Amino acid sequence: MPPDPTRDLETLAVNTIKMLAVDAVEQAKSGHPGMPMGAADYAFELWLRHLRFDPKAPDWPDRDRFVLSAGHGSMLLYALLHLSGYDLSLEDLKAFRQWDSRTPGHPEHGCAPGVETTTGPLGQGVGNAVGMAIAARLAAERFNTPAHRIVGHRVWAIVSDGDLMEGVGSEAASIAGHLRLGNLAYIYDDNRITIEGSTDLAFSEDVGRRFEAYGFFVQRIDGHDHTQIRTALAAAAAEETRPSLVIARTHIGQGSPNRHDSAKAHGEPLGPAEAAATKAALGWPAQPAFLVPDEVRSLFAVRAAEGRRAHDEWRGRFEAWSAADPERRAAWDRYHERAVPADLFQKLLAAVGGEEKPAATRVSSGLVLQKAAELVPSLCGGSADLEPSTKTAIKGSPSIAPGAFAGRNFHFGVREHGMGAVLNGLALAGGPIPYGATFLIFSDYMRPPIRLAAMTGLQVIYVFTHDSVFLGEDGPTHQPIEQVMSLRLVPNLVVIRPADARETAAAWTVALQRRGGPTALVLSRQDLPPLKRPDGFRPETMLRGGYILSEAGPGRRAPVILIATGSEVAPAVEAQGILAGQGVGSRVVSMPSLELFMQQPEADRRAVVPPDAPTVVIEAGRTHGWERVAGIDALMIGLDRFGASAPYKVLAEKFGFTGPQIADRVRRWLGDS
Amino acid sequence: MPPDPTRDLETLAVNTIKMLAVDAVEQAKSGHPGMPMGAADYAFELWLRHLRFDPKAPDWPDRDRFVLSAGHGSMLLYALLHLSGYDLSLEDLKAFRQWDSRTPGHPEHGCAPGVETTTGPLGQGVGNAVGMAIAARLAAERFNTPAHRIVGHRVWAIVSDGDLMEGVGSEAASIAGHLRLGNLAYIYDDNRITIEGSTDLAFSEDVGRRFEAYGFFVQRIDGHDHTQIRTALAAAAAEETRPSLVIARTHIGQGSPNRHDSAKAHGEPLGPAEAAATKAALGWPAQPAFLVPDEVRSLFAVRAAEGRRAHDEWRGRFEAWSAADPERRAAWDRYHERAVPADLFQKLLAAVGGEEKPAATRVSSGLVLQKAAELVPSLCGGSADLEPSTKTAIKGSPSIAPGAFAGRNFHFGVREHGMGAVLNGLALAGGPIPYGATFLIFSDYMRPPIRLAAMTGLQVIYVFTHDSVFLGEDGPTHQPIEQVMSLRLVPNLVVIRPADARETAAAWTVALQRRGGPTALVLSRQDLPPLKRPDGFRPETMLRGGYILSEAGPGRRAPVILIATGSEVAPAVEAQGILAGQGVGSRVVSMPSLELFMQQPEADRRAVVPPDAPTVVIEAGRTHGWERVAGIDALMIGLDRFGASAPYKVLAEKFGFTGPQIADRVRRWLGDS
User: Fold this and answer.
1) Are A461 and A481 a contacting pair, CB within 8 Å?
2) Where in the sequence is the domain holding B457, given as residue range(s)?
3) Which terminus of chain B, N or C, has less C-beta within 10 A?
């Protein structure tokens, strides 16, 4: 017997969520109806009884965060946002998955208020939620006082079997358990259905036991039983010392007579007939589509009003706290503005100014970081268990540890992918400018969150050291070849490979000033000599991505342009000297960032790299792609093969990257051309 | 009191392993001594009592596989190989980490016999071992008979905390537990030390409990107590229905008075003083370095002789089996040779020959796969839970499942990274030509194993569907932009993006014939029209990577070259027609593989893309890198931004990829130039 919708307002509300999802997917003729239908019961309970939000103030700093890691269920989120009174209209819902709509196929941060993160690539939301929960702990530790608790929000996330199969989800959950993030709760939508069929096909592990092993508080419930849901969510909210996993056994496509528990419900519309059958089965009017009963609107309006009151109450506390401790309030503002001083570059330059000895850029970066941390309170981060090598500890600041969030140094463990997803969560939470460090080769382990940071426009900084074959003996498994160029291909990611300490200071300056997207710093393991710059050199020039480091002396012919990056700049300068002795004039262009250089006006670029000049590119990696700057006829001195295990000076010789070898190749090439 | 080496031969042997590692690292002045020192006890027990191998026949198909996932402990492996009698001399050990040596910093498959896989990037070996264990099950199921058991080997792997923190390790372990791989055993070197310090910093989970959740048989032992080690390894070897995890509590740098249990022991030499102190503490002669006592040589020689006998005995069984069942033996040979028929291309073409209707290349690929599976018994694979979309099931063959290995269809779950590592293990094991499928965007989740397949020269096939923004409504999180070009940057990976069914058959042909490295097939979600080719067109032309699909008709000026790939070829042909109507002659070049094209002789390339002709590249992704083929002055019609959620025909229009839009842009560009 179908339930009587007039009898039970909550059933009516749950069915409204389900039917909005069904109708939107039908209208788009594409999408994922099954997950929202299966999740509507617990999502309703979460939003109506636990999630703390003010739909008119989606940026309230102490709001609870809601993460739909199973981003394919986007209509669940859009329906809840609409019903809850966020600025997302029924018209927006009707434009689901259409060009320029606010309701794209997967939730995109920024497309609508209340969408806290961009999800869809599975497992990422698991990590984003960890970052947000850590950020809440950081803020609580920094700003709460015995008299005033102004940070106390929680993070709730819905995760699917796919999120929990992905390794990034495992890494992030292990971090959460380690840090005892009691302010984090996942609801696992355990519908036992994957795209290929039953989870029995590939996923027979005991998920609850696994999460207990991570240190989670695990509960198992019937995800359609509202009493069980309420009890479990209340227990999760009450738990302060362990993150929670609520395993909610659900049925995908719940309510649909023929797609219930079916893999087909996952990723395709029910179709008109089944949509109609579903409405009939639920006692829902066949027409109109996108129906929201008035009493359901009222129910959500009551919840919105509660949220508004909670926000008002918080604002009162916040003002009292501000008045009691204006200094702390000023710190709050700086932190949340991610403020950077106007003279940042000068100060970072000064931090390395006295360095006239050869130094690895990873070491220079470590020096710069100390000053940057002093100047930018938002800066915090860590390494995927390589800090002694990446030089990324903020000295004098304690480690982030279970129950200890006063510091700024993270230990992510050997979990690059989880680190990347956590960094995104930290950036999304508001406050932190997070950085994460590892060897450049292991950027391959974390490409998905790097891409999402770029897509979402998050200020995240990657410190990638050991940036070429010149890391030496660790050999080809650890030696980047294609990594630098392939990171350059990610839209809205800026990659910078500095050549010495000063360029490293410039690189950090760009990264700290660049609010609309991530920056990757690509740093050497080996020592690099400080470069000599011309008299009157303006340091700001280094911020342009590419500049004339050393002009050609007089020569018999038009100078050849030697473009180099990072550790290849110094041998290029050496080659310039040798060539000059042979009557060949050359200009050395240091080009730490191809992307920044390409953003310069064309005339400026031509002044640095004249289009008709013979041009050489020197970079110890794939040069495929440098044609865009240097032209198709350029001599490319790079590496199109994997590296080798040997001391780095041997490798430089074997691979032809010493100054004399470069000079020789250039001279022969000029002779041939 | 230091132990008396003369009293205890086994202690002497263990100390030999330790000291070879210490001496080699000292000599190289770089490397990782701590892990081999801590692992020597159980590694000795494993190699001397359990691992079944014949050092003179490292390719014995039924040998046990040994995987050192913690590849930084390479000297442990090299020491064991040397002592066991493999072709790896003391001179080789003395050349540790030197140019062109057989003992690189991390083990590289092929550098020395007995190195079963290339490791170093953490977590990969965990997955390789799963692939090898599955391959053993596949072979046992295919070739063992009630009368003859010719496949019965096991896979043993040593893993570190880093391997177990990495998500790829979690994914692979979950697969192993699901498939109940009783022939797989990991020894977890639980030394509680990471590079940053104690594992307490970031890794406090209960690893044993987690592996029990995956379905493992978990044992916990003192990793220096030989009695406990023997008992545990014997129990692991006896367990047939669950994979094993032996958690061996060890001490990094064991034997070193001052680096014992120290993070410093991990990645740097002990130094001469501490090396000397260690030798003194172990009662080991200060000189000579690289000492191998005769009695230790004899001990290992006894083991080698046992291995030789086991191999001889196996050979006898194998011959008896061959005689009893010559047909099965012939199948064995075909399987292990990864044989492909000479007329493969013709037959795969015929499989799609009748297709004159528009079809997505993923669908054409599905058709080709059926024929390929019929012709190539080695071919097996599956998808990361996207088979209904990737069209990668071999019809009529059962699924690989717990206790069921007769089939060829894998269900990897939503575990792209684990899939990639398992594919490498399958390829390394000998026999399978494995393929793995997912959406192209999720190639980002599995770049490390793709790179390792390329480095190791493994024949692995990736089927990446949903290859551009034209997947439509799922939006930018799912739409590849930089993926195609960035995969092209991986050395020794061939990327092929076919334009229709026939090119898809050619792509599979390349992949199946290409034994020395991996191939990525990049396929459309949406239908593509079959392309019309000129009369007398030789299909082999399609194997060259780029070819003239449609020659220019007569025109007023030199023809413009339109280079396109995949789904952009058909609109290029449409544009050609429009341009012809406007008196602009153009040639359409289909270039499914930039890499294959670049391998053609220069004259042939120039015949297809004349260097001086105006050239246009049309590819719905990052075009950065196409300059190498098309020149710096080419018109690039691509996408340098993230995509958008909308129906794909809308996206084609909005992003300017329709035939008329392309024609219009080309005409305007020609007018301007």
Assistant:
1) no
2) 344-522
3) N
SS3 assignment, position A55: coil
Write phi, then psi, for B197 (nearest 5 degrees). Answer: 145, -135
Q: CA nearest A173: which of A118, A212, A115, A204?
A: A212
Asked whether B472 and B651 are in contact (CB, 8 A), the reply is yes
Contact present, B361 and B354 (Cβ < 8 Å): no
**What torsion, rounded to 10 degrees, do the Cα atoms B178, B184, B190, B195 define?**
-80
Active site residue B416: yes
pLDDT, tens only, A49-107: 999 999 999 999 999 999 999 999 999 999 999 999 999 999 999 999 999 999 999 99
Domain with B464 in it: what CATH number? 3.40.50.970
Token pair for A654: 């074997």
CB atoms within 10 A of CB B114: 20
CATH of the domain at A557: 3.40.50.920
Tell whether A469 and A355 lie within a shared domain.
yes
Tokens of B261: 């249990």
Give the Cα separation of B107 and B115 in Å (integer).
7
Q: Where are the alpha helices (DSSP H) in B400-546?
A: 416-429, 447-456, 483-488, 501-513
CA A371 to chain centroid, in Å, comes to 24
The answer as to whether A16 is a domain residue is yes
Within an 8 Å CB–CB cutoff, is residue A404 touching chain B?
no
Q: Are residues A235 and A88 in the same domain?
A: yes
In B489-548, the residues whose Cβ lies within 8 Å of chain A are 489-492
Q: Do B385 and A414 touch (CB under 8 A)?
A: no
Nearest to B415 among A105, A167, A201 (CB): A167
Q: Which amino acid is at A389?
A: S
Say if B518 falls within a structural domain: yes
Q: What number is the ipTM of this complex?
A: 0.97
pLDDT tens per residue, range A154-211: 999 999 999 999 999 999 999 999 999 999 999 999 999 999 999 899 999 999 999 9
Please indicate whether, in this complex, the C-beta atoms of B386 and A209 are within 8 angstroms of each other: no
Rounded CA-CA distance A471/A435 in Å is 22
DSSP H helical ranges for B522-588: 569-581
Q: Model's pTM, two decimal places?
A: 0.98
Query: Residues A595, A600, A605, A611: what is their CA dihedral angle, to the nearest 10 degrees?
Result: 70
Inform me whether the C-beta atom of residue A481 falls under 8 Å from chain B C-beta atoms.
yes
Domain boundary among B287, B309, B331: B309
Integer-rounded Cα radius of gyration of chain A: 28
Residue A139 CB contacts under 8 Å (≥ 6 apart), including other chains = A61, A151, A335, A431
User: Quick one: which of A24, A44, A22, A42 has its CA closest to A33?
Assistant: A22
From the list B274, B662, B250, B644, the residue with the least C-alpha distance to B474 is B644
Residues 150-209 of A with CB under 8 A from B: 161-162, 165-171, 174-175, 177-178, 194-196, 201-209
Distance CA B474, CA A99 (A): 11
DSSP B246: E
Contact A166 B168 (CB under 8 A): no
